[in-house]
Amino acid sequence: MKEDCIFCKIIKGEIPSYKIYEDENVFAFLDIANDYYGHTLVIPKKHCENVLDCDNETLNYVINAVKKISKHYAQKCGFQGVNILNACGKAGEQSVFHLHFHIIPRKENDGNHIWPTHESLNNDLGDIASKLKL
Prior knowledge:
Blueprint: H1 6-11, E1 19-22, E2 26-30, E3 40-44, H2 56-76, E4 81-85, E5 101-106, H3 125-132
Antiparallel strand pairs: 1-2, 2-3, 3-5, 4-5
């Protein structure tokens, strides 16, 4: 746990939350932004800044919880799908530096537009692939 981390404080119960799910490794709660119905944050209880510094075991716990919660929303709560989002690092627009995934439950024709729309950049994809390939 990190003393000055808002999500660590939520896990410890120092800040109230609307808990959706908890096990020994993961905590999930509603996002107080209250911007989308059921917008849920899924976080590890172990403090990691983001995907890049998280150990594989912890990341596995988190993504399995994301799947479990998402299936629950789709199978038991009347949703037809979910958006699962993660921001990683300051340049990736991460705002709280404790690893977290967003689950946004979706219904067909709900009017929500999560994905940004952009014009094609007309880049040479072959050139990009050769530069980014592992």
